[in-house]
Structures are given as C-alpha cells and as structure tokens.
Design goal:
homodimer; alpha+beta; Jelly Rolls; 4-stranded antiparallel sheet; 11 strands; globular; disordered N terminus; DNA-binding
Chain lengths: 271, 271
DNA sequence: GGCAATGACACACATAGGTTAAACAACGGC
DNA sequence: GCCGTTGTTTAACCTATGTGTGTCATTGCC
C-alpha cells in the first residue's frame, strides 16, 4: 500500500470532526496514489462546491432515473443496488468515502441501479461532463479518473467470483477483508477492526444470502475465534492470517498502488 | 436498437468468409452506435494490424500476467474467468466479436483474470496506450472507448444480480436472452436462435452452477417449450415473451442505443 | 474396426442455504 | 416507566442445488 504517511496526514487534518479537510475528498483519494500539483488539486476542489446531505435510508437516485450528475461521497456509507419485482435485492457494492457515484453518467442515459444511504451521508455533486472536460484539460486527472473506473471494475469482478463460487463462510470472510483493506486507505483508525454500519440483512443482500444464514455464518466465524463483534457494530479481525486463508483473499485486485500510467516513461509515450 | 441497416450492411461485407470486413472490427462495433468520419475510421483501423490466431482452449493471457496490450476479438468466442485454488472456476463474461480485452490495461499493472478461447479465435492486438493517445487525438473516439467501458460495467453489474439473486431457472433464461441480444448487434443471422459454442459445464461456470444442475434446468426449459436445442449446439428461443418474463429481462442495461455524449449539445459543452 | 476422450443426460443421495416463526435485546418516543 | 420498532439470535423444517456415479452418443485417432 502506498504512502501511508500521506493518509495519516490527511486524517489528522480531519480529526476535528469537519467533513471536509483542506483537500477535497477526490483530491484526497486520488492523492493517495498520485502526487497532485497545486493546480490539479484546485481543479478537483472546484467540483466540490455543491453539497448534499442525506439521512440514513434515503435514496440518492433510483434505478431508471435520467441524471446528469456525478457525486463523491464525503462522509458515511452508501450502497448501490437493484431489486427484482418480487423484492429480492442485490447490492452491487458498498460505497465508501472518496468513492464516485454515477462515474460513467456521461455515457449512460439512465441509471440502472439505485443508490441508498446506509448511514447519514454527505456528498458533493457536479455535472457528469465536468469529468470529461477536466480530463481533457488535465491529462493526469483524466488518467486518475480512468484508473478509478478500472479499479471499480476490478472490485466488481471480484464480487462476481465471491458470489458465484464461494460459499457463505468464505463469502463473508472475503467481504470483511475487502472492506477492511478499502477503509484502511481512507481511514487510518482501523488497523484490524472497523465499524460496519450495516444490518445482517443488508450484508445478505450484498452477498446473495439470507439474513438467517448470514447470522449463522457470523456466529460460526465468532465461535472459531476469527472475528469479534462488539456492540456498536464494530468488527474486529482476530486472526487475519486464518481469515485470509479461508477467504483466499489476495488484495491485488484492489490496486492499492500508484497509478501506472503516470510513470515517467508512460507520460512521455502519451505525450 | 440503433441502425439495423448499418449492421446488415457490415454483415454483407463479411459473408464471403473473411474475418475482416473493410471496416476494422472496432470501427464496426462502434459504428453501430455512432457515425464515424473517414478519419476516425482509419485511425481505428490502424489498431488493427497485428493479428493473433488462437485454437479453441488456448489462453490469451493468464491471471497475474503483466501485459501492456489491448485486444479486439474479431472472430469466435472467448471467456474471461478466474479459478480458485481448489479448482472452482467463475467466468466473468463471455467475449463476443467486437469486444475489447484488457480494455483498462493502461491502468492495471497485471491482469486479474485469465482469457481463454472457447472456439478457434482471431484477435487484433495493439498497445494499451494507443487507446489513451487515440482518445486524446480524437475526442469522439475517446467518448466511444469510455462508452464501451461503461457498457461493460453495466453488463457485469447485471451478472452480479443474475448470480446473486436469481435461481438457476431464471439465471439460464436470462443468460440466453442476454447473449441473443448482444449477438443481434454484431450478427444478423440470429433472429431468435444462435449457436452457443459452449459446453454445459462452461455455462455452469459462468452462472455459478454445477454441470448437472445446468443440464437439469435446460431440460426443464425444453420440456416447458421455452427453448429448443438442436444438434450443433444451436439454441432456439421458442417463446421469447415467456422467457423474458421468467428471466425478468429488460435490455436497458445493454445500452444498445447511440452514444449519449455525442449529441450536438454535449459536444458543445465538452468543447 | 476398436478405443479413448468428450459431452449430454439421468438418477440417487447429501447438504448448504432458504423459509418461517418466535424470543429477546436495544432504543427512542412519550 | 411502558410500548412500538428495529435488529439479532435461535430452532425446526424444507428445498434448491451440489456430488457421485453411470450410461449413451459422438468424434477423432491409430
């Protein structure tokens, strides 16, 4: 994982309970993987003017909405999901601070999923086309946006493997580890534990399992001394190695390293 | 679906058993959704020089390979997949003619899945960075590449819902319909049936099912008069409406319409 | 022609995970 | 303090799907 110090620094700037550090959230997230210039940072921060506050359970947009806005989650947790006619629901992904929503909005006339706040949430909102014009004006930012998209794609592919070919026990272990690794990038407070602000039903909807079976399986993980669940929905990983082994978790797909295209030689190639 | 005539025209150019029409495959695929200029077409065709021929079962690249090439499938079927240590395999997606492989390669140091030919296959290969430089030189092509990426993302999300929340019966129905709709874009010979060059085991690996259960479920679909399976692995949809209802299939996510960003007003906005 | 390999198909049986229901704890409103 | 609401936990039962095994048809090889 890249530049731990940098994350730490950003965190410190935030500890006084303000949602926004001096850096905007996008600049912060991208900044973990790429050293931004002053100019690039202020270009990103310009996206950060219009704020949205949502209460837990509220929807940001619905499946089928025609929207031309892209969002960055600043604070809280959300999820993207689709529901079948009979009520079966599938969560595509959890949305953590720093993540983009409707990233590809400029190319999609309507959304194909719903986005809902799991906790109280704060977002910044800007036009879909801002990403396109910003990318044109600042090629390195364009690469960063493309990289964010590629990373999301990898996450989704891993989700397919998780749901398609892992059993409940492995699925939950894998999901808990993925969330830990992702949170570690933006939030330094979780060395081996974190608050999972999610009911067991929601976890089931993400993993293609029923509430009851999630409960059964969490119980098993606890009984075997692999995890611990405090009150306040705090998850603590007690035996990281064993859990990683069970889940066959390898963090490569998270791409927590510097953005490849921005090495010296590639910048030359691209001109 | 857009410009049926255009697809027909391209098909005619191909019927003499040549893999390449006058238009390169990328220009052809993109051309279905966007009228390309002569200049754009020849820029795309420049990507089309280096050909690769693979026999069925051969791998194009393996999980973990560090490659800096992007590919277009010209002819045949392939699949992208990952295998767990104990042999359980999950296919992320089938790859049809016109699809890109390692689309985001410029942003990913190593691949996270394996790509294998299901039939004999022909591909064109070019540098990952060509997409970036081409996008910079031709903004409309940049939009087209981004649109292709967004579309792939939608397909993968639908795959998550399919595997996570549909049962075997619905899963297979849904997959068969998706393939029909996708093939219809590039190949006009399949009005309501197509050759599915795939064993039942492979279908199971795509849908998170066992071979035996795929077999059972196909039998049921046949017995109920919904589909027909000729020899030569040809699938015929006998009752499209019923199947669409069962699968709760709505083709919006396939985005078989013109590329949104390229409307007059958006082009102005983007400059 | 025989033989090995592959894939479709079928059956019996085992089990992971779904369903239903109910008790219980935590919390906020009043 | 009581009460409704929400989420967790557990138990009992059921079913969709996996596993193991075997047959049969087709194909290609020698």
């Amino acid at each position: 994982m890249l530049s731990r110090q940098k994350v730490l620094k950003f965190q410190k700037a935030e500890t006084d309970q303000k949602d926004e550090s001096e850096l905007g959230p996008l600049a912060r997230t991208i900044g973990v993987f790429l050293d931004l210039t002053e100019e690039e940072i202020s270009a990103l921060d310009a996206l950060n003017r219009q704020k949205i506050h949502l209460a837990a359970q509220q929807d940001l947009y619905l499946e089928g909405d025609a929207i031309d806005r892209t969002y960055v989650l600043l604070h809280g947790w959300m999820c993207r999901h689709r529901t079948l006619e009979d009520g079966r629901r599938q969560i595509m992904s959890f949305v953590l601070p720093g993540d983009l929503l409707n990233h590809f909005g400029a190319y999609q006339p309507t959304t194909i999923h719903t986005v809902t706040a799991l906790t109280d949430a704060v977002l910044a909102s800007f036009s879909c086309h801002d990403i396109v014009s910003l990318s044109r004006a600042y090629p390195r930012l364009g690469a960063a946006f493309a990289w964010l998209g590629a990373r999301k794609y990898s996450l989704l592919e891993e989700h397919v493997v998780r749901i398609g070919r892992r059993n409940a026990y492995e699925r939950i272990a894998h999901m808990l580890l993925e969330l830990l690794h992702c949170l570690n990038v933006v939030d330094d407070s979780c060395e081996d534990g974190y608050e999972l602000p999610v009911t067991q039903e929601i976890l089931g909807d993400a993993l293609g399992l029923s509430l009851v079976h999630v409960n059964r399986t969490l119980r098993r993980l606890r009984k075997e001394g692999l995890i611990q669940m405090d009150s306040n929905r705090r998850i603590v990983i007690l035996d990281m190695d064993a859990l990683t082994e069970i889940a066959e978790f390898s963090p490569d797909y998270l791409q927590h390293r510097s953005i490849p295209i921005l090495t010296e030689e590639n910048l030359q190639k691209v001109g």
